[in-house]
C-alpha cells in the first residue's frame, strides 16, 4: 500500500505563499497539497490554473479551509500581520504548522504562538528560517560541530537585497518591523544556530542611514544598517543589511573561531559560468532571495513533511523564532533611539527601554 | 480534472538507472513512474522498498514490462550493451524513449536506433546528455546565441573523474568503448551544441597514458587522454579526460570566440562554503558526476516529460548522439593507432581506417 | 650629470624600520640611503652587514645623525613612543619626514607634529599609511572617483592578523594604544580616503572580546573588536580587527555605493597557485602584513622621494593621520567604556568623555 | 668598502629591451647598468633621457659597446634574429649573457650559442624564460618537488595574448618562428622544468586555425593553435596558444599528478579589486604579458646578477633553451604539415621530416 502522505493546506498564495504551495505540490514527494486559501482574487485566478487541476481545493476563507477533512498540516505564507493568528487557529484544529518567518513583528505576539505550541507538544510547529535548510549552511554547521574552527567567536552576516526602485520597500516598511526584524532576523537565527540557542546578549549597538529610499524616513526605517550584538559568553555577532545592492542578492556569512574560519557565499554567483570580455571576467549574481535559496525552501518542505510523518524533531525549536525577532527588535530600537542597550547575565535588560 | 501525466517505465535500476527512476517518481510532477524493470535481484530488493509502495509495478523481464497497459514512455538506464535493443523494442511498442548515454559504443548500432526513430517521428527519442539540461551550460549557450563572444572558435572541455582505486574502472573498460567514447562523449556533445550540429571534422589527433590503473592496458584503454578535433569551418575542440583526480569530479568547459570567452565550472565546488585554516582557504569539490549534475538530471526528466506530453521538440536531435559517439570512436582510434585521422569537406574519411 | 637623489636617513631598524631602510637603499632609484640610526646593538650588527658596505653611515644617536651633512629627509621606523619627537626634531633640521604610522597613540602628541609641519609648508611630512600606495586600493579609489559606484555610502574594512601564540601581542598591547588605534587605524584612513577627508563623525559604537590572548585584559585590550562609525553625511563605516586568524593576514575592504560596490582582497592569496587534493582546492594566504603590502611600501618610498625632489603634493594631508588616530581612540574608548559616543555636526563631542 | 656590482650593458632598447635596461638600472641593486646599445634613433632618444643621466654610456654599434672597459655582462633584448650572434660575440669578450628568449627561431643557430657557452663554463649564459622567476611558478615547482601531487603526469599550459587589431602580429609572424616557437615555448620550458629536463618526446600532434588575423596565412602561421606532446616516460603536455583574447593576457598552467594537481593563474587578475554592478561581479585582467610577469623579470635580473657575482648555478641549463625551441619547432611543423611526428626512445625522430 502506498505510504501515507502529509495532507497539507497552503494559506496565502502571494510572493512566498505560492512558492510554498508549489513546492508542497510538486517537490515534496511525501506531502500532498490538498487545499489552498487566499483572500486575493488574483491569487485565486492563479490557483485555479496551477493548483485546482491537481486536486487542490481552493478557499477564500481561512477558517473554512481548516475544516477540510483529513488535513494534517498548514503552511502559512500570508501577510506577516496574520501569521500568528492563523498559526494558533491551525494548532487549535490539531494541525502541524510551517509558518513563513517571522511569526510576528511583535515579540509578544510571537510568544503567544509559542505558548500555544507548548500546549500541544505532539504538533510540529516551525517558523521557516530557510537558511537552516541550505546545503552550504548545513555543511558549515557540520564543520563547526566537528570542531574544525575551534570555538566560534565572531559571526559576520549580511542580508543584502538588490535595489528595487519601484517604491515597494517603502510601502513594505510600514509593517515590516524594520530592516533588522525583516532582514537581519535570518542572520540572527544563524547566530543562534552557530553560537548555540542559549547565548545571552550582553549589549547591542546599531546605526543606519537612508541612501536611496528617502520615503523610509516616515516609517523610521533605513535602507542600510549595521548592528553589533555582544554576548555574555564572549562572542560577538555583527550584521549588515541593505536594500541597495546594484548587483543582486548578496547574503554572506562568516564564522570565525579560535582555530579557523568558515565563510558561506562570500562570492555570490547565479551559476558556474564566467564571461570574459574587454571589461574583464564577470560572474552574475542572483537577483533575488529565492534565486539564492530556492533549494533550501524545497528541502524545508521535505524536512517538515518528514518530521510530521515520522514524528522526528524539527531542526530548530520554535522558541528560537521568538528570540531572533526579539534581538532584531532590540537592534531596531538601538538604531532608532541611537543608544546602546545592555543586559545582565540572565538576559534581563538593564535600564529602561528607550522607546 | 487532473492533467494527464506521462506514464513512464524505468529499465535498469543500477547506478544511473535508480536515479532516473527516483527522479521520475519524485521530482517530475508531470510524469508518473508506473513500472520498473531490472534483471538484478539486489536491485529488485531495493525497488520493493523504494518503488513498489508508490504504485510502481516491478518486472524481471523487459519485454513483459513493455506490455503493461497505459505506458507512454521508457527511461533506459541499463547496461550500455542493451541500450539500443531496448530502445528499439520500446519504439516498436510505440513508446517514447529516454535512453542513458551512449546508445551504444558501436556507431553502427547507434545508427539502428536512429533509423528506427526516423520511422516514428511522432515519438520522442532522446539520448540523455545531461549537460544539455544544466543551468550553467544553458546559460552559456544563451550567451553564445546572443553573440556575446562573437563566433565560437575554440572549445576546451574536460571530463575528469575522481580516482577510484577499487579497480572498478579497469573492469568497466572491457566494454566502455574507451575513455573518449565513455567520458569525452559529453564534451563532444557540447561541441556539437556550441559549434552547431552540422560541423564537419577535418582532422583528429589523440594521445593517452596509463598513470594509475595499469590493468587498463589489457583493454587498450588509458586513464588520461588528450585529443584534438579540427573542423572544416575553422573551429578546434580539444578534450582532456582522466580518471585520476585526487580532489573529485572536475568537468570544465571553455568556449573562446572571436570577441569573448565563456567558462563553465572552472572552479569546481560542492557548495558555497570556504574553510580557512593554517593550510589556507579551501573549497571542497563534488566527488562524483552526479554531485555536479544532479539538478540537470532532474531537469532532463521534467523536460522529457513535457516534450512527450506537449509534443514539443527535444533539445537535441537523436542523430547527434550518433555523431558524438562517432567522433569519440575516432579519437579512441587515433589514440590506439597513434595516427592522425583526416576527412574531406563532406566528412568522408581520407585514407583507410587504421584498425 | 646624474640627477640629484634624495639623501635620506633611516631611524630605527626593527621590524618595519629595516624594511624602510632596505627599500630606500635598493628599491627607490631616486633616493639614496646615506645614514641609519638605531639604539639597538643587534640592529647595528645587522646594519653593519647590510647597510654600511653600501655607504650608509651608522649612528647610535638620533640627534647626531640629523647633523650629517647633505641630508634631505628622514624615514622614521622606531618605536611609536618616539615617532613624534623624532619627526619634530627632523623638521626643525629642515628635513622632509616619512614617519611610520601612527605619529603617536596620543591625539595631542599627533597634533604637535602637525603644528610643527604647518610652520614649514615647504617640507614634505607624511605618516605612512601604506594602503594608500597599494595598487588595488589605488584602483578602487580611481573607480570611485569615476563614479562607478555612485555615492560611496557604506564601508566595511577589516585588519586581521594571523594568531601569534608567542605572547608578543600581549606585551605590545601595553603601549599600542589598543586594537582600534593600532590596527583599525588603517581602515579608518581608507575611510577618510574613500569618503573624503572632511567627513564628520556623528556617533561611534564598539564591542570587543578576548578569545585567545587572556593576558590582554591587563592592558584593557582585546583580540577581536568590531566598531561602527556613523558620519553626518549619512555614511557608515564599520570595522573588524582581530589577532586570531588561523590562516594568515586577511585585510579586506568593501565600499558600497548607491550604484555599485567594490571589494579589495575579499579572497586573500599569497600567489596565483591553487592546490588540489583530497581535501579540495586550496589557496594559501600571506602570513603577515608585509606579505600583503610589500609592494605598497616600495611604492611609498618612491612616491615620497618623488614628492620631495619635485615638490609635488603628497597623497594625503598630515592632518589625516591625526584624524585617523582620533577616530581610533574614540572607538577604543567606546569599546572600553561600553558606551556609544555622539558628536554634533561640527564634530564637537556631545556629553563628557567617558574615560 | 662597497661590494662590487655587476657592470652590465643592455643591447636593444625596444619593447622588452628597455624594460631589461630599466630593471638593471633601478631594480637590481647588485647590478649597475653602465652601457646601452641600440641601432634605432628613437630608442636612442629615449635612452638619452632615461639612461644617460644615470651614467649609462650609449652606443649605436654593438661591437663598440662590448669594448667598454670593466664590463661584466650583457643583457640582450634586441630583435630575435641577432640574439645568437650578439650572445656569441659577448661570450667571446668573456662576458656573462642574459639573452631574451628565444636564442633563435632556428634550432641550429641555438645550438651554436650553446656550443660557445660550453667552451666557457665560467660564464653565466642564460636564456630568459621569465616564468622560471615568477613567484607562483616557483611555489608550484616547490610543491611538486615536495611530492604534493605525486608523480607529475599531465601538463596543460596556455599562452594567450589579448587580441591586437593593429596588424602587428601579422608582420611579426614573418620572422617569429610561428606561434608554437614564439608563444608556447614558455609552456614547453615549464614542461621541462616540471617534468624534468631529461624527458624525451615520443609523439607530437598539432592543429591550428586563423580566426581573426587572415594575414597570417601568408606566413603559414595561425592565431589559435593546440598541440600535444607525449613523452616516453608516460607524461603528456598539451598547449594552447592564441592571439585572440578579448579580455587580456591569460597564461594558465595546470600540472596533474598521480596524487594531486596544481594550477597557476587559473583566474587571471590585474589586482585584488572586484567591481559589483548590474552586470555582476567583475575582475579585470592584465592587458599584456608584462602586466602578468613584471616582477618575474625583476627577479630574473636580480638572480642573474647574483649568479654572476657569486658564481652560483643558474636556475636552468642553457641546453633547455634549445630543447624548448626544438619542441616548439616540431609542434609548428606538425601544425603546418598536418602530420603527427614520432620519436624513438632515444629521442631520434622516426620517418623523415615533413618539411
From TrEMBL, chains A, B, C, D:
Signal peptide: none annotated. InterPro entries: Gfo/Idh/MocA-like_OxRdtase_N, GFO_IDH_MocA-like_dom, NAD(P)-bd_dom_sf. GO terms for cellular component: cytoplasm. Residues 138-262 form the GFO/IDH/MocA-like oxidoreductase domain. GO terms for molecular function: nucleotide binding; oxidoreductase activity. Residues 7-126 form the Gfo/Idh/MocA-like oxidoreductase N-terminal domain. GO terms for biological process: NADPH regeneration. Pfam families: GFO_IDH_MocA (PF01408), GFO_IDH_MocA_C3 (PF22725). Belongs to the Gfo/Idh/MocA family. This is NAD(P)-binding protein. The lineage of its organism: Eukaryota, Fungi, Dikarya, Ascomycota, Pezizomycotina.
Amino acid at each position: 500500500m502506498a505510504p501515507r502522505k502529509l495532507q497539507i493546506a497552503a494559506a496565502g498564495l502571494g510572493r512566498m505563499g505560492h512558492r510554498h504551495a508549489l513546492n508542497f505540490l510538486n517537490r515534496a514527494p511525501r506531502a500532498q497539497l490538498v487545499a489552498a486559501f487566499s483572500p486575493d482574487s488574483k491569487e485565486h485566478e492563479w490557483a485555479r490554473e496551477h493548483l485546482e487541476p491537481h486536486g487542490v481545493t481552493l478557499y477564500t476563507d481561512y477558517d473554512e479551509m481548516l475544516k477540510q477533512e483529513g488535513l494534517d498540516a498548514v503552511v502559512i505564507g500570508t501577510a506577516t500581520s496574520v501569521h500568528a493568528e492563523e498559526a494558533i487557529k491551525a494548532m487549535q484544529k490539531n494541525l502541524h504548522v510551517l509558518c513563513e518567518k517571522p511569526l510576528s513583528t511583535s515579540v509578544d505576539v510571537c510568544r503567544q504562538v509559542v505558548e500555544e505550541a507548548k500546549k500541544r507538544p505532539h504538533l510540529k510547529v516551525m517558523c521557516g528560517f530557510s537558511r537552516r535548510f541550505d546545503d552550504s549552511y548545513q555543511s558549515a554547521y557540520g564543520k563547526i560541530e566537528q570542531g574544525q574552527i575551534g570555538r566560534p567567536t565572531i559571526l559576520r552576516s549580511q542580508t543584502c537585497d538588490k535595489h528595487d526602485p519601484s517604491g515597494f520597500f517603502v510601502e513594505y516598511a510600514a509593517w515590516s518591523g524594520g530592516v533588522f526584524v525583516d532582514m537581519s532576523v535570518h542572520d540572527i537565527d544563524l547566530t543562534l544556530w552557530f553560537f548555540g540557542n542559549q547565548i545571552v546578549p550582553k549589549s547591542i549597538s546599531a546605526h543606519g542611514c537612508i541612501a536611496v529610499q528617502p520615503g523610509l524616513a516616515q516609517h523610521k526605517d533605513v535602507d542600510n544598517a549595521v548592528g553589533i550584538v555582544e554576548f555574555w559568553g564572549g562572542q560577538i555577532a555583527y550584521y549588515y543589511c541593505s536594500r541597495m545592492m546594484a548587483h543582486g542578492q548578496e547574503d554572506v556569512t562568516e564564522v570565525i573561531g579560535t582555530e579557523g574560519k568558515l565563510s558561506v557565499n562570500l562570492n555570490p554567483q547565479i551559476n558556474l559560468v564566467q564571461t570574459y570580455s574587454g571589461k574583464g571576467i564577470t560572474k552574475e549574481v542572483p537577483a533575488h532571495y529565492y534565486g539564492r535559496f530556492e533549494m533550501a525552501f524545497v528541502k524545508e518542505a521535505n524536512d517538515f513533511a518528514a518530521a510530521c510523518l515520522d514524528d522526528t524533531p524539527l531542526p530548530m525549536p520554535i522558541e528560537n523564532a521568538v528570540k531572533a525577532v526579539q534581538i532584531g527588535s532590540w537592534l531596531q530600537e538601538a538604531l532608532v533611539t541611537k543608544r546602546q542597550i545592555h543586559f545582565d547575565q540572565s538576559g534581563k535588560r538593564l535600564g529602561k527601554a528607550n522607546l
